[in-house]
Fold each of these.
Amino acid sequence: MHTRILVALLCGGAAISAAVAETVVVNDQVQVADSQMNRPKRGSTMGQVEKQFGAPVSRHPTVGKPPITRWDYSGFSVVFERDRVIDAVVTSGDAMAAAPAAASDAPAASDAAPASAAPAPQQ
């Protein structure tokens, strides 16, 4: 059931290319929060990304066929196929500070007790 919802959200998000959003899981619930973080556009070259955003914090080795490479920046990661951007995703909670607080109404994970928590044994 959760998989169908997630797939529907991802397909709906892909259909609306003008909207930029990120998914956040809070208490096992998938929520979509707007993100205003500037990220590379799909189809940009590695050279264009480096020119616009500077050198990445880290570059991961290329793997697979076709070759897939990931560059990590502060707050987002860029995934390339060969030398073209195929995706850029927000990776840091720092990006949420710039976004509207869509998920801030939900309780923090530390506020909620796990459902399987048992009382501590007494000595």
Note: Residues 2-98 form one domain.
Amino acid sequence: MNSFILRAKPHDIDREEEFLEGRLSIGWPCNQSLEGADRDQIKGILSSFYEGLSEVSISMVDLFVHMPKDAIILTPSLQDKTLIHLFKTTSNYKYDPLSDNEKAGNPHFINAIYLKTVVRNLLPKPVLKSLSGARKTLSRISQHYGILDEYISNNFQVNRGVKPKYNKFQCEAIDVIYNLLDSEDEHVRLKAAIAIIELS
């Protein structure tokens, strides 16, 4: 059983509404499908389009391409940093050639069903800890699948009507606070953690 954190900003473009409509994506246009490709093949294809491609980026694309059906996906909201969207995948990797272009290309996608939007700090503590530590676009948190599956099953009602709590500028400020959790200065990390707790 699989679970992941996937951020709704492939190639630095806000795709939150597309995610909520059931189309999860990762960007990386490359003029061809990655279906059936292994990690080395994905590296070869992407390297011909992107200079200085990191091993982390290759691993994330590989993880996305091989994401299975029925995986639980957590996506932090871009509109309100205190919220998390939950999804379950309903398809394997798909490729849309019509969406494959250099500027805003987003051809690699997976279909998913939107389950619910929840307040970040109400998630189970182990999941919350993984969320706080995950900085990449895509991270595997399959060790928490059982906890998440139980969380979804218990008193779980669809709630699409969550209103953003903060405006765009406040969200950017909150994002800065979350990034300070990576500081090498323990005093900065402590102050950032206190600020995040006070946001809840």
Note: Residues 158-163 have pLDDT under 50 and may be disordered.
Amino acid sequence: MSTTERRARVTASFFYRSYRLCFCLCLFWSLIPVPAAHATCREINVARGFPSPAYAAEFDATMRYLGHNFFHITTSKGTELATDPLGPGWYPDPHVSAHVVTVGREHFNHNYVEILRGNPMVLRGLNQFGDDWNRVSVNVREVFIYNIPLYQNGADGGYLKGAAFVFDLGSLCIAHLGDLSHPLTPQQIKLIGKIDIALTPIGGRFTMAPETAREVVAQLKPKIAIPMHYRDDLRRVEEFGEGYRVRYLDTDSIPVSKASLPSSTEIVVLRPYGAAAYE
């Protein structure tokens, strides 16, 4: 065998061994569970075999209730989130900006994105003018946002499509249940995941009556449920809160953190921005 042939065989053998080594390493690393970037809400994303993260005592987010289904959430990293922005004429127009806004229903009381400053990304739960669901699953800065199809009641008792949105902040999971009008199915509960804070409609016509809303809270088991869509009717809030500890805050804002969540579900009532003070 010539020197050239021996060198060719040695080279081929070297590359073959290198290929096998790379293949084995890739296989080895593929078998090691890697923590998901956002593992708070959905158990399906949680890597097995890793310890639970430690949560700092500082606030993870500040939540502000701007009326109806309209919330403004600011994370500890400064990311601004808005939900179902309410059109003018009901409460004073808030001067808020957002990086992203979600729309769970195509209606003037839910989709007035023009009210927000900052040219936010608009995530719509429905397309084709509300005729069909639109799938959302996206990272916006440090927040992972996804939606869940649901139904809302029509004025004639029929059903219209709507959407809930979940905001995974990494340590805290917030669900905005849109205009939900029915108890959740097992599939919807699985899609929503493990919730810390549930923004819960209790309207009674286009949304759930208070007793149905209590059933949904029992299904999701959030640590905090914040009622919305009750049109300043505190009688609905009282019905919704039956059997739970209820806190009325004479403010539109609340700071929240994983470390300070109550041990069992608590109803927290925020006074909408610009609304009359609670008596």
Note: The first strand starts at residue 61 and ends at 65.
